[in-house]
Specification:
Structural class: mainly alpha
Number of strands: 4
Radius of gyration: 28 Å
Order of helices and strands: HEEHHHHHEEHHH
Length: 210
């Protein structure tokens, strides 16, 4: 009888000790999904909130410049440095040979083989276009034209697609006249898609080159 009492007492103590070692799983503090507090909708990553990435060690581009350039690159060439399209535009950002010459690049073969050169060329062209469009940026940034909220990055993206003159024409016509490339893509779509990114750090430089 005494042996049985010791056996059951020991068993109860072991169960009690193990029970104290575990905490109940709380869905409120450990959500399976990230929840948007505004819409009450559940979603998995990627998230639109930078803080959701803090403990996950996942790059967050947000509205940073890296997000801007990679979004344009994907649209232009799916990010392929050696891409040549049917019209002869080159590289990750699809430069025309004439545009490359304006920023000091004359050897297109070497250009295609050099990712670092392509990244520098993109920055140089942005810098040059920012100087050429400095008046338009100062005058129209923050305005709404034909339903389009105008931002600096949107203006620079539109210039990358269609050139500086087409952007100036867009503003002179109050948004009524706008350029489309050979594939039907308009500078208006670029203004919308690539607006709101941080390009403030880019220095406006008339003589920007590599």
């Amino acid at each position: 009888m005494i042996k049985k009492w010791h056996y059951y007492s020991t068993l109860v103590l072991i169960i009690a000790f193990l029970s104290l070692g575990f905490k109940p799983f709380n869905l409120d503090s450990n959500p399976w999904f990230l929840t948007d507090g505004l819409t009450q909708s559940d979603y998995l990553l990627p998230s639109h909130k930078q803080e959701d990435y803090a403990k996950l060690n996942i790059p967050y581009t947000g509205n940073f410049f890296i997000g801007f350039k990679e979004a344009i690159a994907f649209k232009e060439s799916q990010g392929k440095y050696r891409k040549i399209n049917s019209l002869g535009y080159l590289g990750k950002y699809q430069f025309g040979p004439g545009t490359l010459r304006t920023i000091g690049v004359h050897n297109t073969t070497s250009f295609l083989r050099n990712p670092d050169l392509q990244e520098k060329a993109f920055l140089a062209l942005l810098s040059k276009n920012k100087w050429l469009l400095r008046k338009e940026i100062a005058k129209y940034e923050g305005a709404v034209i034909n339903g389009i909220y105008i931002t600096e990055s949107g203006i620079l993206a539109a210039a990358h697609l269609g050139g500086v003159r087409t952007v100036k024409r867009f503003f002179r016509s109050n948004g009524e006249r706008y350029f489309r490339d050979a594939y039907g893509t308009s500078i208006v779509s670029y203004m919308k898609a690539f607006g709101g990114y941080d390009t403030e750090f880019i220095e406006a430089n008339k003589h920007a080159s590599i």
